[in-house]
Structure formats: C-alpha cells, structure tokens
Amino acid sequence: MSSAESALPPARPEQPAQRSRTLHDLVELLSSMRFAIALFVAICIAAIVGTVVKQREPLNNYVNQFGPFWSELLGRIDLYTIYSAWWFLLMLVFLVVSTSLCIARNTPKIVADLKSYKENIREQSLQAFPHKALGELAMPAEAALQKVSELLGAEGWKAKAQMRDRGTMVAARKGAANKIGYLAAHSSIVLICLGGLLDGDLLVRGLMFVQGKSVYSGGGLVSEVKAEHRLPASSPSYRGNLMVPEGGRAATAILSMTDGVVLQDLPFDVELKKFIVEFYETGAPKLFASEIVIRDHATGATREATVKVNEPVIHDGVAIYQSSFDDGGSQLKLRALPMGSSAEPFMLEGVVGASTSLSNGAEKLGLEFTGLRVINVENMSGATTSGADVRKVDLAESLDKHLGSGAKAPGDKSLRNVGPSVSYKLRDAAGQAREFNNYMVPVELDGQRVYLAGVRDTPAEAFRYLRIPVDAEGGIDGWHRLRQALADPARRAAAAERYAAAASPASNPAMKPQLQATALRALNLFAGAEGVRPGDVPPSAGWGGLPALSTFIEKEVPEAERNRVSEVLLRILNGSLYELHKLNLERAGKPAPAGDAATQNFMTQAVLALSDSMFYPAPVLLELDEFKQIQASVFQVARAPGQKLVYLGAVLLIVGVFAMLYVRERRLWIWLEPTAPGQTRVRMALSCTRQMLDTDAEFARLSQALLNPEEEKKAT
To answer: What are 263's strand-pairing partners?
Structure first.
C-alpha cells in the first residue's frame, strides 16, 4: 500500500443509508398487522372503560365512587372524558396511519394479482395440486378449447388462454371479490376513524387554536360570555346542547370540553312553540317532542318543524335532535314556615333557575330554586294502616326512623302519582349547600296522610324525608303551630301544668307538683331547651327530640330500670304534647280535638315528626303553594362532516366482511395437449383459498362435465 493510501481517513458508514434503514423499519412496524391489532385492542379496552365509567359527571360523583385519591388519579389520565382524551385520539390517529400504510403496501400486490390469471404455470406443476384430473377428449385441440371456453363461461369463470408449442394452457379465475373485501374492510377502519376524529373534539380544538379561542370555565348568562369563548356559525364540525324554553328562542349551543365549555353560535334561531310529553304509569317519559320554528339568519326565512326522538330535523347542514327536556323557568309561589320560632309564616315567589336570599337573624342564606316536578310516581305498596301509640315507641328503635325514606317500601310495587314537588338549595356564607325536595300535596303512608319534606347533603345521597302529619283541616298548620308552641317556654310550662292537673289522682294531690316538674323536664328535653345534666349547654349535650330523652335515660337511669322509665316518660311526653295541642287550638279559637283514632294517629306521627324536626338543617320549611309550569326542550345540535365517512365506512365494512367470509377465490388451470389426430389430452387442477366440501363438489362437477359429459347427463 502506498503512503498516499495509508494517509486516507478510515471510512465511515453512510448516514443517509442509516436514516433510510430506520425509516424503513418504522414504516414496517406501523404497517404491520401486530401493531394494528395491538392498537385496536387498546382502543376496545378504552371504549369498555368509557362505557363502565360514566363520562362527564360532576367531580363530586367520582369522589364519592372512587375516593379522593383514586378519583384525582383517574381524572389526571382523563378516564372521565375518554373519548376526547389526547391519548385516545392519538391511538385513533396511529390506527389510521397503520391501516393506511397496510393498504398502501398491499394494494399494488392485490391489484397485480387481480389482473394476473397465472397462465404461465408449467403443465407439470398441475400434478402437485390436491384437486386434479386427467382425461382424453375425442376431438381436435381447437374443438376442445372451444368446449372448455363454453363450459367456463356458463359456470361464471373468467379465463385466459396461452398458446404453447405443445398445447394450450387455459387459466381461469372465480371469486376475485375476496381480495376486494380485504381492501374494503381495511378502508372501512380508516374511514370510521377519520369520521370519529372529524366529529370529535380534535377538530374543534384545532379551530380554537387557529382562531385564538379559549375554554370558558365561569358562570352567568350565555349572552354575557365574551367573543374569545365563542366559535363562529361557519364552524365545520361541532356537537353541543341547546336548551329552549316554551315561548323562547335560542341560537347558541354549549359544547362541553374537559376543562369547561365553548359556545357555538348557530346560523339560525330555534323557537319552541310547544313541548309535548307523555308518561308511562311508572313515571318514565313515553314520548316527548317539540314543535319548533327555525329562523334562518342569512335569509330571514322561517320554517316550522316537529322534532322527535330519533327523528331529527336538518337545517343548513345542522342536525337538530330531541335530546331531553328540562324546566324552562317555572314560576313558583311558596309558603315559608319558620322552624322553632314564633315568627308567622310568610310568602315567597321565585323562578326555577333563579336565586334569592333569606335572613336568619345575623345569618344570611342563599335560596336557589333548582327544579319543579309536576309528576312524581312512587311505590306505595307498603302503605298499611298502623295504630301505634307513641307511648309504646322504643327510644332506641326510634333513632332508626329519623328522617327516613319518603315512600319506598319492600314488597310488590304499587305505583301511584303523588303530585308535584319543588326542589331548592340553601347555601350558607361559606358556600356549603344542602338540597331540599318538598311535595305539594300529602301522601298516605302507613295509614296516615303526611307531607314529605326531603333533605340531602350531597347529590350522591338519597333524600331523607321528614313526615309531617295532616291536621284535621287537611293542612300542615296544625303541626307547625305545635312546633312553634314547643319552642315557647311559657306554653311548655302551661301544657305541663295542665297535664299534671289532668293526670294527678284526686286521692293524692301531692303528686301534682312532681308530675308537673317531670312533664316540664320531658318537654324541655324534647324541645332541646336544656341539657341532660345541670350545666349542659344544648344542643351539644341535649340534642332535642327522642334522642335527648334516650340520652337522659342512659345517663340518669340504672340499666335495669330503663325500659320501665322509658315507657313512663314517653307516656308523660305524649300526654303533655296532647295538652299543648289542645292549648294551641284554644288560642286559635278552634274546637277541641276529638279523642278518637284519627287524633291518636295524628299525635303519634306528630311526635315523631317533631323529634325529626330537631335535626332539620334549615331555619324554614318551604311549602309549595302555587306554580306555573314552563317546560324547556333540550336539543342536541350537530354539524358532522365525518358522518358520511362513518356511514360509508360501515357499508364498506359490511361488504368487506361479507366478501372475505363468504366469497372464495378459486383458480382453475386446464392443459390441452394434442396426442393424436382427433385426440386431445386434458389435465385439470384447481386451487382455492379455503378448503371446503363445496370445493370438492365443484371440481368434481367441472371435471365430469368436461371429461365425461355422457356420465354427467345420466347423473342429471
């Protein structure tokens, strides 16, 4: 080697060739079947999770279901909004790319195979096929070729003949649609995924990025939302909700995003003329539809239409679906009953969806009217007559009945509409809110007509109901006056005195002061006005109601005497409350109560309701007096350019699967070789993509028809 050659630097591998190899490997991976199947399985698993876990629910629901730690962790990986999560959309994109590359790689091979009849095959190779036949035809080669052509044409085979020195090779093909089915099925996956991407959040977020729009996470009126949170009417793709009250109109849809909402201006107004709803006996909606008027912004033209479930109306490329219905701002008139004070009831007016404030002395509460339900169907199968006396109530068992179920009972179902109800929230200065649900008319439960006043602390809980008995006049005032009297020390003392006078035997007048003191102590404990022991500060020690009496007995009475003392104390309490009830009627100028079973039932339920009312977490109870219902229809408006792609993909998927499963590609070769004047040797072979019994029968029929036509005629 010369010195010049030894001075050359060592050779380095070519970088472009390495990059080309890396790109080739990446394309091979993306277009491989194992990669596509892995993506498809991952998407299916994500879809199953999205079906099991309810999507786009309030965060509190997930906290109650999974706990604080797991709910936050699952939220970080977007399991509550799977179908718009970035990783789910990314998997769809990769599936589209993988399937497209697979189609691009195999389409030239399939097209070339469809064009090729493989007529160049050697005649000796026909001996290797599982389906083969050999015979002689007593006719020249030209006549044999004519016969073969007629037979294949009659059977639907496409054939091509190749003339050779020693004979003629006829290559035929049938069932070529099997290969087309492969392309159709794979193309359908691409079209369906593209349609999903076009109609999902991906395109909307892309438009927001290009147009400089942002998600809105605040509250308030739709008209007050600024332009940077609104998409123009010309947006090519969106899917949102539009709520329109009866007699009102709307032109702005709300698009829910993972971190807020975006408003979508529509190219038209939707006015709701009338909302129609019909119910089953169970209270579930049977039919709901909307009679609407659409007013186009560009032309000013109007059209009337009726939107029903599964019967949308299409206008300017936007589909209007009947999604659900809601309250459109019903007008309410309520009667507020102060709890535990001598204040008189007062009237309130409000609108569903609006709010006002209530003052509880120094405390101010926000009152939010959340809903009005005109029809409430409940199970009344457990409504049986009960003549229980409150004096026989076990104090321990009474705690289990505290603010219990409103109407549900075990046994066979007996569904009945129990009338309208109103729901509202009371929110304190710290922002904490409780939800209330009160029925307008009384419901018969356990043989007693009662008003139901429900309360719950969180939306995840069921309502706990306060059962207030109906008085002799069919209203709630009798019980409410008794509740106010119980909070008045003077009237408690008067009732205790009257009870002692009525219950003390004439032969032992010395019992009256002791009995009066016991009755007053029972009333004070029941009213929560004093603690169990001297120095206790109610309500921390004396809760009020039956629990206060239970605590008193547990702390002051030996265990062996508790049952007897409990029964005596409840008798005294029942008698004292009855005297308090009579005292109220006298002050109101009403006749004394009759000592019958109806009065006994009223007092039994009244004592339980008074006990529960000590735990009622509101200073007032709102009774629905009048209402004017205004319905609202909730529409889903969608402009879905990917919908046609999805429909086309579905058609191609059906065609492709059908072609691949039910169409078999068969190839047939027939070698015609002259052996003597007027004699032609025939060699046949058949190949099929799937071996089936029909293939054997088909080849046998073809060979019989060509080589032994007389035998075939006899068999026929």
So the answer is: 230, 254
